[in-house]
Specification:
Helix 2 runs antiparallel to helix 10, helix 4 packs across helix 9 and helix 11 runs parallel beside helix 13. This protein has 2 domains: about 150 residues, Alpha-Beta Complex (Aspartate Aminotransferase, domain 1); about 240 residues, Type I PLP-dependent aspartate aminotransferase-like (Major domain) (Aspartate Aminotransferase, domain 2). The strands form 4 sheets. The protein has a 7-stranded mixed β-sheet, with helices on both faces. The protein has a 3-stranded antiparallel β-sheet with strand order 9-14-13. It contains 13 helices and 14 strands. It is globular, with a radius of gyration of 21 Å. The longest helix has 21 residues. With about 400 residues, the chain is an alpha/beta fold.
Length: about 400
């Protein structure tokens, strides 16, 4: 058969997707698997958002949409940025895409030339590095150690920037760690960036409303307005409003960049589903009470998971500021053998053995650029989390 493109040679299938597929295979065999591998809210989409999409369809709003988003949704996004972030974006500085992932890919394809570098704090969302490679760029991971709360240090950012640096990616609250930067910490990063005017900044703020213990979210263009003309502020409705399947991401940024991204999107997918845009506008403009209510539930789940994981022998779990993930260190489990006879040499071995022996799906930290850790999503019901953590404790007690 004809050959596939060489650009795929270094692009891996997402580890979270792989682990989720393995969990589904076991479930199809009648095994009760608890999957903590996917970052998807277990809540329902708000009813008023569903109704808005339904009404849009009934009203005939089913034709091709504008490539950059419907006026109604872009205006709702504009209001959201003002309300939540104190950011003023003109309508031609806003665009809508098929989820945050397409926003990021649009930006990279519009700006990155072969050899350009994309600085990515690690641990990082799995897709960042592969998307940079697909665009012809070179991902440059920067280690963010647990002893600094998994946050990017200004001195490490400074050291990572070279004349080839085109982008810095920021994702706080972070996937996979849940860590988030305070205003002072964000300002320290901004001070570094002010010295490097050739660097674009992409901030992935998908988890902005999922913060706990009184932590106050901030985004970099809000903290340092002098950077606004080279910051792309990315967000969406998937995490905040449990609308993953509606596929709506949006962003605000400088007009020339947005114009280029809209052009790129026109070649890739054109505009996104009209009913999804109607639903997203209703979510952004509608009652926001449920956002805080759901965040309170996530906080309780976080506290449960952190407590139970820290009771597992060989596991040390940091308590994060936000998102719905924890990233426990499993160094104390390495070099041992499970009750099923599996040697645990790496966090990948740990994750596979845990799935096969205790039927709990997690993702190995290696997939996110840092070992020996595992990522656990607590975006599932409390009883399932309690049972999953009990199984993890049992698994760890059986290591010898």
């Amino acid at each position: 058969m004809p050959a596939l493109a060489s650009r795929l040679n270094d692009i891996a299938v997402s580890a979270s997707t792989v682990m989720t597929a393995k969990a589904r295979e076991l479930a199809a065999q009648g095994i009760k698997v608890i999957s903590l591998a996917i970052g998807e809210p277990d809540f329902d989409t708000p009813r008023h958002a569903i109704e808005a999409g339904y009404k849009a369809a009934l009203a005939g709003d089913t034709k091709y949409p504008p490539q950059d988003g419907t006026p109604a949704l872009k205006q709702a996004v504009q209001r959201k940025f003002r309300r939540d972030n104190g950011l003023d974006y003109a309508l031609d500085e806003i665009m809508v895409a098929n989820g945050g992932k397409q926003i990021i890919m649009n930006a990279l394809l519009s700006t990155v030339d072969p050899g350009d570098e994309v600085v990515i704090p690690a641990p990082y969302w799995i897709s960042y590095g592969d998307m940079a490679k697909l665009a012809g760029g070179t991902p440059v991971p920067v280690n963010c150690p647990q002893n600094n709360g998994f946050k990017l240090r200004p001195e490490d950012l400074e050291a990572a920037i070279t004349p080839r640096t085109k982008w810095l990616f920021l994702n706080f609250p972070n996937n996979p760690t849940g860590s988030a930067c305070s205003r002072a910490e964000m300002q320290a990063l901004a001070d570094v960036l002010l010295r490097h005017p050739q660097v674009w900044v992409l901030t992935d703020d998908m988890y902005e409303h999922l913060v706990y213990d009184g932590f106050e979210f901030c985004t970099i263009a809000q903290v340092e307005p002098r950077l606004k003309d080279r910051v792309l502020t990315v967000n969406g409705v998937s995490k905040t409003y449990a609308m993953t399947g509606w596929r709506v991401g949006f962003c605000g940024g400088p007009k020339p960049l947005i114009k280029a991204m809209v052009n790129m999107q026109g070649q890739l997918t054109s505009g996104i589903a009209t009913v999804s845009q109607a639903a997203a506008a209703a979510a952004l403009d509608g009652p926001q009470d449920l956002v805080a209510e759901r965040a309170a539930i996530y906080k309780a789940r976080r506290d449960l998971v952190v407590e139970m994981l820290n009771q597992a022998p060989g596991v040390a779990c940091h308590k994060p500021e936000g998102a719905f993930y924890v990233f426990p260190n499993i160094a104390g489990c390495l070099g041992k053998t499970s009750t099923g006879g599996r040697r645990i040499a790496t966090d990948t071995d740990f994750a596979l053995a845990l799935l096969e022996e205790k039927h709990v799906a997690v993702v190995q930290g290696a997939a996110y650029g840092m070992s020996p850790y595992i990522r656990i999503s607590y975006a599932t019901d409390t009883e399932s989390l309690r049972e999953a953590c009990a199984r993890i404790q049992e698994f760890c007690r059986g290591l010898a």
